[in-house]
Amino acid sequence: MTLSIAEEFVLLAHADEDGKPLVKEERVKLVLVAALMSELALRERIELDEDGGVLLLDGAPTGDAALDAVLARIGEVETTLLPRTWFARLHAEQNPAPILESLAETGALRAERRRSFGVFTSTRYPQGDPAFEQEVRARIQAGFGGAEVTPRTAAVLAVVYAARLLPQLFPGADTARADELVAGDWVGQELLAYYGGAGKGDVATTAFNTVFGDGAL
User: Fold this and answer.
1) CATH (domain of 91)
2) Residue 32 falls within a domain, yes or no?
3) pLDDT, tens digit, 9 for 90 and up, residues 43-71
4) pLDDT tens-digit series, residues 6-21
5) 179 C-beta neighbours (distance < 10 Å), count
6) Close Cβ partners of 169 (under 8 Å, ≥ 6 residues apart)
7) Which of 9, 32, 38, 85 could form a disulfide with 94 if both were Cys (CB 3.0 to 4.6 A apart)?
């Protein structure tokens, strides 16, 4: 079964043993916007116009609720907006829970529901069938080994890279090679520029890093 870019990212962004997220939830939400936009770009639903704005090519429903929500929001505006504007506008609307449930339904994760004090319920999503994650990792690792990667794999690597997960998931990975592999993915490039391009020490960067900073949960 082929997973979406968002599903592959969420799968990689949770620890195998206990299902805990490897990065802050706010960062997951931010990167999810790019993952969904990358999926739409690969499906030729959106593209960049000559001014660098996100142009809607086809707003017909895809059947995927998360993708359709992004399509609808893009279709609401009368002009094209920069990708970073969409990252800022849409990240608060993202919810990884339905994607986690979808991964549990496919068997890639297991949904473990726990009750505390007989009242509060929480759910963790540890690894299910390891073949799903192994396949994603193998595609990315092959790229680091010198192989060409598909646009889909490049897009997954770009969001993993932007989420600052490379050191955890691919220890020793060559970031220069990562830059080469994601160079053709415009959504990933825009996310990397948005997330890592601001100068250090200014008020905007300090506020940004407070919300999306590098520390894991």
Assistant:
1) 1.10.3630.10
2) yes
3) 999 999 999 999 999 999 999 999 999 99
4) 999 999 999 999 999 9
5) 12
6) 12, 137, 160
7) 32
